[in-house]
Every structure is written in structure tokens, then in C-alpha cells.
Amino acid sequence: MHLLLIDDHPLFGAGFAHALEVVRPTVRVRTAPTLDAGLKLAAADDRLDIALIDYRLAGENGLAALASFGRRFPLVARVLITGEDVRHLVCQARAAGAVGCLGKQHSAEAILAALERVLDGGECFDEPDGARAPAAPVASATARQMEVLALIAKGRLNKQIADQLGIAERTVKLHITALLQAFDARNRTHLLVKAREHGLL
């Protein structure tokens, strides 16, 4: 099993890689502190099976980073990892293209078992009692809308968002309208408040 961990905490990355490789010596784990570094490693490794991306990635929205990675490497399975309560992230992670969402508190054995399910074509979402978490208001949000939301949180104007994502400004407005409806938000400021309430920012 060849894994890529994108996490900006070097001690966690080193410990994660060591723990998994000790439990199963055939596992290979490469680590990257940023999305850009992870993309470069992925481009150089055609054996990569799964990319694990931290939700609280410095300088990036982990969900947007997960979606960006998927556009570059659609055949690599993506799993969101987090030190927070994952129940509020399951729907967002699915919408961003993840096949799993795991808490960092799990043992190496449990993480490996979950990743084995992914290799077998399954999913590995942490959900209470094995049940699917209740649908969140953002369950229908697309990966592109997640990116727009992340840029709104950074204070970008519609034209700046359009330029950065390479889309028309009118399309940005449509994405924002869809986000306002999904979150039942009155305006951009209220949208950010609601997004934070749902653990999206």
C-alpha cells in the first residue's frame, strides 16, 4: 500500500508514517507539508494508492485541497483526516470527492483496516455506530462551490475568485447563490458564519 500524507505538522507526519510502517512493513508512506508539495510527490509516484489530506491544512482549506488534488489525480483515492469531530465533516468530505473521513485519534491498526476497505473499493467514514451521519445543509455543495467558499473566507471579490479559478464572474455569482441557498444564509457574511458552524472553515 502506497500512501501520501499531506499534513503541515511534521511531528504528526513522521509519527503517522512510522506507526503504519511498523504495524505493516509493506506499507510505504510519503509525507508533504503543503498541497503543492503533495502534488509534486504524487506526480513523481505512479504507484500511489491513497492520499490522506488534513482538514486544518495551513494556508489551505483542507476540503478545497482535497478537491484540487482530485482534479489533478482523479484515480488516486482521497481521505480527509482531522483531529476534530468528524461527524460534521462527513457530508462535506463526500461532496469534495473523498472516499473517507477519519479522526486522527485512531490506532495504526484501525487506520490500516479502514484504508484496506478503500483499496477494496469501499469507503471509510467515521460515523456513530456505523450509521451514516445526518445530512448537512451543504451535502449538495459541489467541489467547485467549496473552492469558492474558501476564497470568500479569504476576502476575495467575485472578480478575483473568477480569475483565480479560471471561470466567468457570472459563474462565481451562480456558485455563491447556490451556497447561500444551501446554508440558508442571507449574505456573504452570514454564509461564512454558517459555514464555520458546520465545521467547513
UniProtKB/TrEMBL annotation:
Is rRNA-binding included in the keywords of this UniProt record? no
Keyword terms, alphabetized: DNA-binding, Phosphoprotein
Residue ranges occupied by any HTH luxR-type domain in the UniProt entry: 134-199
Can the keyword Phosphoprotein be found in this entry's annotation? yes
Q: Which SMART domains match?
A: HTH_LUXR (SM00421), REC (SM00448)
List the InterPro entries hit by this protein, alphabetically: CheY-like_superfamily, EvgA-like, NreC/VraR/RcsB-like_REC, Sig_transdc_resp-reg_C-effctor, Sig_transdc_resp-reg_receiver, Tscrpt_reg_LuxR_C, WH-like_DNA-bd_sf
Q: Which residues carry this modification: 4-aspartylphosphate?
A: 54
Q: Output the PANTHER family linked to this UniProt entry.
A: HTH-TYPE TRANSCRIPTIONAL REGULATOR YHJB-RELATED, NARL SUBFAMILY
Name-wise, this protein is Response regulator transcription factor
Per the UniProt entry, what species is this protein from, by scientific name? Pelomonas caseinilytica
